[in-house]
């Protein structure tokens, strides 16, 4: 399965999403590894099997085994962190901000790829998962490391497109099962 095969699964009302999905591979603000790692990490965060399979197939020839593992690790650790830090951000009692998280996050320090790429993938997953605190933290690290706003925006755009595809496919599956 590929991104083109995903486009074929999208209904007519999602024409804009189809067009945006087709444009992902032409993104110029990201390196090849950044682009395909963002695609894979965002797909994993989307939790839709068809999207994950298509993104993995699309990313496979463009990523090393280490980069694939790091993109998966970004999706995994952010799946945990986004829930925890969204709670910290949203809870009224600020006591929780002073308590240690007590969550293992060793992969962030040693992801097996360039730290900027891992941070970018973490930002994309955080966007899918809706954690403003994590988005802000990763964006600051990326900008401080010299990544431009266009690259950060490109990762967020890819995450948004992939999430929309997953939501549409999940919705259509639910409608067809009714």
Structure characterization notes:
With about 180 residues, this protein is mostly helical. The chain has one domain (about 5-175): AhpD-like (Up-down Bundle). It has helices spanning about 5-10, 15-25, 30-45, 50-60, 65-90, 105-110, 115-130, 130-145, 150-175. It is globular.
Keywords:
AhpD-like, globular, Alkyl hydroperoxide reductase AhpD, 178 residues, mainly alpha, EC 1.11.1.28
Number of helices: 9
CATH topology: AhpD-like
Q: Assign the CATH architecture.
A: Up-down Bundle
Secondary structure: number of strands? 0
In a nutshell, what does this entry contain?
By secondary structure, the protein is mostly helical. The chain is 72% helix and 0% strand.
Please describe the topology of this protein.
Elements: H1 3-9, H2 15-23, H3 32-46, H4 49-59, H5 65-90, H6 106-109, H7 115-129, H8 132-144, H9 149-177
Helix pairs in contact: 1-2, 2-9, 3-4, 3-5, 3-7, 3-9, 5-7, 7-8, 7-9
